[in-house]
Amino acid sequence: MQDMTPITDQPTTPTPQSPDHFQPQYRIQAIERAAAILGAFTADEPELRLSDLAERLGLHKATTHRFLVNLEHLGFVERAPRSGKYRLGWRLFELGGLVSQRLDLWDESLPFLEELVRNTGETGHLAVLEGGQAVYIERVETRRALRLPSAVRRGYPAHATNLGKVLLAFASADVVDEILLTRELAVFTPNTITNVEQLRVELASIWERGYSVDNEEYDEGLRCIGAPVRDSSGHVVAAIGIGGPVTRITPARTEDLARVVIAAAHGLSLRLGAGHAPVWASADARPRDASQFVSRGPLPSR
Questions:
Q1: Could you list the residue range(s) of the whole structural domain that residue 201 is in?
Q2: pLDDT digits (tens, 9 = 90+) for 40-95
Q3: Is residue 227 classed exposed, middle or buried when 0-12, 13-18 and 19+ CB atoms within 10 A define those classes?
Q4: How many domains does the chain have?
Q5: Distance between CA atoms of 202 and 239, rounded to whole angstroms?
Q6: Which of 99, 125, 157 is the last residue of a domain?
């Protein structure tokens, strides 16, 4: 059975033979079989022998070997040094990174924001941390009479806003220090937290419970709730949340609304590929307390 016939409907230029006798031109059936080989690897069986793959796919060992030689040449599979078995290669990881980059944060967030607004009746926002501020990059407005005054593409003080505090809580210690120790923590309302150590305790609490609350800290009469959004690496890249008048987002409703916000953040994170990142599960499982936000002293002057 000849199953790896070279394509002959167009002229080709002979290529030098590698030590593995690499031959790059095959018919479409070969592509399908190569895909089947890659799909044979699973989380339960990340490494497979040549004979395992041949038996599983119903191919001759010689045919399976030729495919594996080519896939190894291209970086799609590799040989495990100790076992000698085949496993998926780093080229697939690189291509997966390109897919994650294609998933645009703005486009992917919109359905989750819209659902969040439907489920809570409050205005939804998405923000990223830039220049020490929470920059709101997307917003979905509620239809209710009293609305949250905010603007897309505008930066808000990270220390005084729900999304900003989320982004700080999950940022690196260097980023937190740079913002808390070198920038003015301005007062906006009597509830604004401007004491550095008190704010560090607040960030540790946010990290532990998985969401933040802006309790009239930026605008009097408004209460907001936010949660972190992770990308395919498992790191927090944005924050999503809701905001509305304190007459609707009451202390009694805060915990229930927070669960809805966390669910939206989780869904968006999965869409961005975070479900495949071991960092996500391992990071969230670690205990964290205020000591991890304790100041290490002023940053050196530049």
A1: 103-293
A2: 998 788 899 999 999 999 999 999 999 999 999 998 999 988 888 999 988 887 67
A3: buried
A4: 2
A5: 16
A6: 99
